[in-house]
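User: For a reading group we're discussing how well predicted structures match intuition. Take YcjX family protein. Before you show the prediction, I'll give you the sequence so everyone sees exactly what went in.
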Amino acid sequence: MVISTITDGITRGVESAVASVNETLFEPVIRMGVTGLSRAGKTVFITGLVANLLDRGRMPQLRAEADGRIEAVFLQPQPDDTLPRFDYETHLAALTGDDPRWPASTRSISELRLSFRVRPAGFFAGLSGPRTVHLDIIDYPGEWLLDLALLEKSYTQWSEDTLTRLQKRSVAQDYMATARAEDASLPLDEGRAQALAARFTGYLTAARHAGWSDCTPGRFLLPGDLAGSPVLTFAPLPKPASIPRNSLWREMERRYEAYKSRVVKPFFRDHFARIDRQVVLVDALGAIHAGPQALEDLRRTMADILKTFRPGRNNFLTELLLGHRVERILFAATMADHLHHSQHPRLTAIMQAMLREARDRAAFAGALTTAMSLSSVRATVEETVQRGGETVEAVRGRLLATGKQAAMYPGELPADPARLLSPAREGADRWLAEEFALMQFAPARISLKPGEGPPHIRLDRAAEFLIGDRL
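Assistant: Thanks. Here is the predicted 3D structure of YcjX family protein, as structure tokens, for the group to look at:
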């Protein structure tokens, strides 16, 4: 085992060194991970970004485009033959067809390569011709990213932490009643273990639909070919006073450790360790709508994510990354088109405040991080409406449920983020001020001119932060 670990480490080190030399001398590669937390619109983000990088008429904030240095952008086969290709064409057709609809969510890892032919800037502009820069987009579920935190926890710690969080959640009451009634010191009963895992998975599913962010272990929700296997048949339990050798607790503990070693570590070894830039999409509006506890959960989850990107505090990560580290991380609040543009600065301020606090909680230092609000594909138009005798700034769109047009005024976000973050931190059950409401909109019918991608909000600024320095 030790020799195998050392050999793997040497092999990864050599591969990394060879790749670095090739990329520096020939065609640089940017590996960008994209993940999302609880219905944040990951598939729509990637589709909208790629469409607007291929046709850049709506990308004025991408500096290389504004300077006229991008000669061409084109899709190429992804470099990893073992990964599914992100189905860009099908997703774009869903968004831009005669009856536009949101594309189906991806449920596993996929990849897409976008290549840029770019003229150099500055001193080198007249000394060399255009060069090719590749952007490899790696799409993976947000729950998989959060699983890395499990590597630092024993089964006892994970059970205690999870059960403590679940105590105040209404969607967890069924599982909490089952867990409290269980005597984990009794001999293993496989049927009982499967029933516990099924009930815990039911809680995770309900928690994700309710807007909670920390829905881990991630493969319980996206099991794939692991469905029904022992590695996904465990659950958090109260620790008994005594733990006999063949008890339910011992077996749950063994399966939890197997999940870390056989599921979590391979993902980070094979994919995460190669990422240069990272996008974390966040449904901040959904968390605000769900209430203070959901917003606090989101803030804590952002801190856990930043811990993930801090090599050095975890021995496995230190060995895995071998000096490689993520250079830039973007936390993006999606669905900014559900607000009038006058409220966008407030949503961005809330995201920036949560990022600052998450950095403090994670004691994070390293990658360049930022937060912003955006809309990957704009689904609404803005208008003013009358509400309670007042004129308010609203948005109008096609309702997802009925297809009919409707105007929405969700309420006013506070100018001071502390108005939301303070009660969230203090564990308030609800907001004291007016509740924040949301509607679900379908994609708008659009007619694109040549050279234009789908309408968006701030995708160009996101692209400039993520890859502008490499173009």
